[in-house]
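Our consortium's second objective concerns turning raw sequence data into structural hypotheses that experimental partners can test. To show how far this objective has progressed, the report includes one record in full. It was chosen at random from the queue rather than selected for favorable results. The single chain below, 218 residues long, was entered without modification.
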Amino acid sequence: MGRRFAHIAVLGITGGVGAGKSTILEYLKKHYGAVIIECDEVGRSLQQEGGACYLPMVQLFGRQILQEDGAIDRKMAARMIFEDPEKKKELEQIVHPAVKAEVRRQLEELDREGVTKSTVQKLAVIESALLIDDHYEELCDEIWYIYTADEKRRSRLKSSRHYSDERIDRMFAAQRGDESFRRHAQITIDNTDDIVQNTLKQLDIRIAERFPECRAIE
C-alpha cells in the first residue's frame, strides 16, 4: 500500500454524529501514540482572531457577529446559517478549504519530524464527519468508517448531550448515510456494542493488517 507521506502513516476516521469516534481517537492516541487532528478543532482555531477564517467570516456576517472581546460568536453564526442556507454554503467555502490546508500543513510538519532510524512509523489520525465530502483521500492513506446503529447513536446523543429527537433527526438528515460511508471507506469498524473492548479489538486487528509499521506502544 502506497503512502501519501514518506515518514508518517495517515489514517482518516469518519462517521456520523454519535458514532463514538472520540473513544476511537483516545484509544489510538494512548495505545499507538497517534497524533490526533480533529477537523472541528482546527476549524475553531482558524476562526479565532488572526486565524485564516476570522476576517472572511466577519466580512460574511458583519461585525454584529463579534462579541465584546472581538471573538466570533459561534452560536450567533450557527443561528444565522440555519436561517439562511446560502450563508451556510458561503461559510463552508471559507472554512473547509482553510481547514484542509491547515491539516495538510500539520501533516507535512509531522512528516519532516518523522525522519528517524526507528522502524516504528508515526501514525497521524484525521477525524471529521466530512472526510469523504471534502476529499481527504488526497491526504489519507486510508479512510475508516466508524459505524454505530442509528438507535444507539440516538440513545448516546440523548444521554450525553441531552439532544431532542427533533435535533437528532435534523443532524442525521444532514449527514451522509450508512451505505455511502461504507462505499467510500476502506474499512468499517462496528462500534454499536456497549462492550468497548469489542470495538478496540477490531481496531487492533485492522491496524496490524493495514498499518503494520505502526505498532502499539504498550
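The partners drew two points from this record. The chain is about 50% helix and 10% strand. The mean pLDDT is 94. Both points have been shared with the crystallography group to help prioritize constructs.
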